[in-house]
C-alpha cells in the first residue's frame, strides 16, 4: 500500500497528505450540506437591493443590512409557530406513550401470532398519506360531526333544542383534529422504535418479576418504563420533528386562517406573487427554528430515531 | 379514581401472584425435572382458556392503540378504495350505490396521470440510487477514524431535521434564475452561457438557466435537492452497517494485499446489503411522499415536468373536488408503496427479523 498504488482512497489512508485530502473532502461535505442554509441566513439580513446586488452567500455589508425581513417573517409566522407547538407537542406525547405500550404488549409479552399484528403496524409506517386523505377529510368534516350532532341532539335534545352543531370551523377544534390525526399515524413508527429497544432488554429481570407475581402492568410501570426513558427521548425528538415538519395533513384539515400551522404559513409566504427572498428566507429560518434547536441540542437522539435504533 | 384503579390493579397482582406461587411451589418440589413440572402446570392452567393467556394479558397494552391507528390507517385505506369506486365529486356527500371502476379507466386515458406516474418512477429510482451512493461514500469517509466525527455527522444529517417546506423555500432561492447561488456560481466561471446552450429546451428563449421551469432540468433539480436533504439518512444507516462489520474482515483483506478500493468493493460493501435494502425502502417511501417539497416549491399545479402522483392526487381531490378520481390516483400510489414494502416485509419476516 504505497502511494504509487495510484488509487486515491489508499493515499487517503496511508500518508499525512492523504489525511489532509480526507479532511478536505469532509469539509467539502460541510459546504455541500450547509450552503443552502448559509445563503438563507445571509439573505434574511439583506435589504431588497442588497440581495439582488450581493452574492447570496456573502454577508450583507453595512449598507445592505436590515432586520425588516426578519420582523415581517416573524410577524407572519408567529401565530403559526404557536399553533404548530399546540398541535405537535400533545400529538408527539400521545404517539410515544401509545407506541411504548403497544411495543410492550407485542414484544416483552410474547404470544403466538403477534408477528401478524407487528407486520400490520410496520406496514403502517410506510403508507403514502395520500391514500387516506379523502377519507380523513370525510371523517373529520362530515361523518364525525354528523354522528356527534345526532347523538348529542338526541340525548340532550332538551338542552340543545335539537340544533347543536359540531364546531367544525373552530380553529382549536381543527388543531385538535390535526393533533389526533398525527397521534394516530405516529403510533406505527413509535411502536417500531420501542420494539427494537425492548427486544434488547434482557428477559431475566422480567421473568424474575413475573415469578414474584408482578402483574403485566406493574412490570411495565416498574421495570420497562424506567428503562425506556432514553428511548422516550429518541422517540419524542424524532416524532416531534416529523409532526412539526408536516404540511400535507395541515393543508387538508386546517382551513381557518387563524389556526394555520407554521409550515402552512411558510408555504403561503413562499408561494406569494411577489418573491422577496429576504422575507422568505427569514420565514424559512423562523419556521425551522424549533426543529433546528431540538436537533442541535438532541442530535444524537435524532440520529438514533432516524436509524430506527 | 386513582385509588380505585390501583386497588383493582393490586387485586390483579394478588390473583396472579397466587397462580405464580403455585408454580414456584412446583419448582421447589421438583429437583431435576423442575422445568417440566413448571410447564405442565402452567399449561394445564392456561389450556382452559380459549386463547393464550399472554394474548389476553397483553391486549390492554397493544389493542387500543392498534385499533386507534388501524382505524386511521387501514380503515381509511379501505374507505378510500370504496370511494374510488364511486363517482363522488363536488360539495355534497358520497353516494355508494353505483360502484364501478370508471375512475380507473378514466385514469388510464388521462395523459396527466401517465406523465405524473412517469415522473414518480423516475424520481423514485434516480433519487434512491444516487442517495444510496452518496450516503455510502460519505459513510466510508466518516468511518476512517476521523477527528470531530460527531460534528461532521451532525452537520451532514442536519438537512433531514428540516421541513420539506423549509428546504423547498431555501432551494427556490438557490435555483433562482437571476440571483440564485447556483447561477451566480456558474457565472463566476463564465459557464452560464454554455449551460444555457446545453440545457435550454427547444423553443425557449432565455439567457439565464431556469432550473425549476425548464422541462430538461425541473425534475432533476427536485431530485438534487432531495438528495441533499436525505443522503445524510443513508449515511447514518450505512455507518451503522459499517460499524457492525468485524475488524478482522478489514485485517484479513489487508493481509491478502487488497487495495483499499478493492477491499471495500469485494469485502466490505457486499456486507452492507441489509443496510442498503432497509435504507432504500425508506428512501423510496420518502420519494413517494415528496409532495410537501413540490407543493411548497410550485403549489398544487407544479406543471407537467414536476408533477408526481402525490401532487396530482392532491390537486384532483382538493382543488377540483373530484374526490373519487383523487381516491383512485391515491390507490395507485398505495399500490406502488406496497410493491416497495411488501417484498421487504416478507423477506424480513422470513428471516425472523420482525
Automatic annotation (TrEMBL), chain A:
Protein name listed in UniProt: Carbohydrate ABC transporter permease
InterPro entries: MetI-like, MetI-like_sf
Ranges where the ABC transmembrane type-1 domain occurs: 81-298
Xref: SUPFAM superfamilies: MetI-like
Recorded GO CC terms: plasma membrane
Organism: Haloarcula argentinensis
GO BP annotations, alphabetical order: transmembrane transport
Predominant location category: membrane
Localization: Cell membrane; Membrane
PANTHER family noted in UniProt: ABC TRANSPORTER PERMEASE PROTEIN, GLUCOSE IMPORT SYSTEM PERMEASE PROTEIN GLCU
Family according to the record: Belongs to the binding-protein-dependent transport system permease family.
Chain segments annotated as transmembrane: 20-45, 85-107, 113-132, 139-159, 179-198, 219-240, 279-298
Topology relative to the membrane: Multi-pass membrane protein
Keywords: Membrane, Transmembrane, Transmembrane helix, Transport
Automatic annotation (TrEMBL), chain B:
Annotated transmembrane regions: 61-82, 121-142, 154-174, 218-242, 272-297, 323-346
Chief subcellular location: membrane
Alphabetized UniProt keyword annotations: Cell membrane, Membrane, Transmembrane, Transmembrane helix, Transport
A single BP term in Gene Ontology: transmembrane transport
Record bears the keyword Kinase: no
Subcellular location: Cell membrane
GO cellular component: plasma membrane
Domain of life the protein comes from: Archaea
SUPFAM superfamilies named in the record: MetI-like (SSF161098)
Membrane topology of the entry: Multi-pass membrane protein
Annotated PANTHER family: ABC TRANSPORTER PERMEASE PROTEIN (PTHR30193:SF42)
Family per similarity comment: Belongs to the binding-protein-dependent transport system permease family.
Name the record gives this protein: ABC transporter permease
Amino acid at each position: 500500500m504505497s502511494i504509487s498504488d495510484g488509487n486515491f482512497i489508499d493515499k487517503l489512508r496511508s500518508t499525512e497528505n492523504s489525511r489532509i485530502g480526507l479532511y478536505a473532502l469532509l469539509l467539502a461535505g460541510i459546504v455541500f450540506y450547509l450552503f443552502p442554509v448559509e445563503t438563507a441566513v445571509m439573505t434574511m439580513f439583506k435589504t431588497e437591493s442588497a440581495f439582488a446586488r450581493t452574492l447570496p452567500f456573502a454577508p450583507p455589508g453595512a449598507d445592505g443590512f436590515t432586520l425588516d425581513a426578519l420582523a415581517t417573517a416573524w410577524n407572519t409566522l408567529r401565530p403559526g409557530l404557536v399553533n404548530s407547538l399546540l398541535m405537535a407537542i400533545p400529538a408527539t406525547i400521545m404517539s410515544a406513550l401509545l407506541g411504548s405500550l403497544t411495543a410492550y404488549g407485542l414484544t416483552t409479552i410474547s404470544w403466538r401470532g403477534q408477528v401478524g399484528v407487528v407486520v400490520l403496524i410496520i406496514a403502517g409506517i410506510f403508507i403514502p398519506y395520500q391514500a387516506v386523505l379523502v377519507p380523513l377529510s370525510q371523517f373529520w368534516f362530515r361523518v364525525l360531526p354528523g354522528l356527534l350532532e345526532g347523538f348529542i341532539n338526541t340525548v340532550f335534545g332538551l338542552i340543545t333544542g335539537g340544533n347543536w352543531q359540531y364546531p367544525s370551523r373552530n380553529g382549536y377544534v381543527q388543531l385538535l383534529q390535526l393533533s389526533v390525526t398525527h397521534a394516530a399515524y405516529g403510533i406505527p413508527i413509535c411502536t417500531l422504535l420501542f420494539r427494537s429497544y425492548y427486544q434488547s432488554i434482557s428477559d431475566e429481570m422480567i421473568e424474575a418479576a413475573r415469578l414474584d407475581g408482578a402483574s403485566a402492568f406493574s412490570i411495565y410501570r416498574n421495570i420497562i418504563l424506567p428503562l425506556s426513558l432514553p428511548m422516550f427521548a429518541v422517540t419524542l425528538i424524532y416524532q416531534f420533528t416529523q409532526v412539526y415538519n408536516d404540511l400535507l395533513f395541515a393543508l387538508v384539515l386546517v382551513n381557518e386562517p387563524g389556526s394555520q400551522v407554521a409550515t402552512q404559513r411558510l408555504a403561503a409566504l413562499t408561494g406569494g406573487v411577489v418573491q422577496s427572498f429576504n422575507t422568505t428566507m427569514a420565514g424559512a429560518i423562523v419556521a425551522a427554528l424549533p426543529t433546528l434547536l431540538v436537533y442541535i441540542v438532541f442530535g444524537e437522539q435524532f440520529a438514533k430515531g432516524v436509524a430506527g435504533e | 379514581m386513582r385509588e380505585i384503579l390501583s386497588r383493582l390493579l393490586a387485586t390483579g397482582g394478588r390473583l396472579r401472584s397466587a397462580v405464580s406461587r403455585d408454580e414456584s411451589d412446583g419448582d421447589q418440589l421438583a429437583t431435576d425435572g423442575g422445568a417440566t413440572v413448571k410447564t405442565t402446570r402452567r399449561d394445564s392452567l392456561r389450556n382452559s382458556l380459549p386463547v393464550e393467556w399472554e394474548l389476553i394479558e397483553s391486549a390492554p397494552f397493544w389493542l387500543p392503540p392498534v385499533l386507534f391507528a388501524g382505524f386511521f390507517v387501514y380503515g381509511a385505506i379501505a374507505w378510500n378504495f370504496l370511494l374510488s369506486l364511486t363517482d363522488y365529486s363536488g360539495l355534497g356527500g358520497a353516494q355508494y350505490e353505483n360502484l364501478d371502476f370508471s375512475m380507473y379507466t378514466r385514469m388510464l386515458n388521462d395523459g396527466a396521470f401517465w406523465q405524473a406516474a412517469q415522473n414518480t418512477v423516475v424520481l423514485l429510482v434516480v433519487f434512491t440510487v444516487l442517495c444510496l451512493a452518496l450516503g455510502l461514500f460519505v459513510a466510508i469517509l466518516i468511518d476512517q477514524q476521523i477527528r470531530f466525527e460527531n460534528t461532521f455527522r451532525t452537520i451532514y444529517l442536519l438537512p433531514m431535521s428540516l421541513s420539506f417546506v423549509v428546504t423547498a423555500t431555501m432551494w427556490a432561492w438557490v435555483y433562482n434564475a437571476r440571483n440564485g447561488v447556483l447561477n451566480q456560481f456558474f457565472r463566476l466561471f463564465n459557464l452560464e452561457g454554455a449551460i444555457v446552450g446545453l440545457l435550454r429546451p427547444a423553443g425557449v428563449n432565455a439567457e439565464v438557466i431556469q432550473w425549476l421551469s425548464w422541462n430538461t432540468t425541473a425534475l432533476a433539480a427536485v431530485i438534487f435537492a432531495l438528495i441533499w436533504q436525505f443522503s445524510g439518512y443513508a449515511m447514518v444507516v450505512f455507518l451503522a452497517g459499517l460499524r457492525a462489520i468485524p475488524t478482522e474482515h478489514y485485517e484479513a483483506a489487508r493481509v491478502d494485499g487488497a487495495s483499499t478500493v478493492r477491499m471495500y468493493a469485494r469485502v466490505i460493501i457486499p456486507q452492507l446489503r441489509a443496510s442498503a435494502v432497509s435504507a432504500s425502502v425508506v428512501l423510496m417511501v420518502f420519494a413517494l411522499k415528496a409532495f410537501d417539497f413540490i407543493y411548497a416549491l410550485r403549489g398544487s399545479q407544479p406543471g407537467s415536468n414536476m408533477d408526481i402522483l402525490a401532487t396530482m392526487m392532491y390537486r384532483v381531490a382538493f382543488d377540483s373536488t373530484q374526490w373519487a378520481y383523487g381516491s383512485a390516483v391515491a390507490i395507485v400510489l398505495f399500490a406502488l408503496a406496497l410493491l416497495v414494502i411488501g417484498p421487504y416485509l416478507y423477506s424480513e419476516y422470513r428471516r425472523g427479523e420482525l
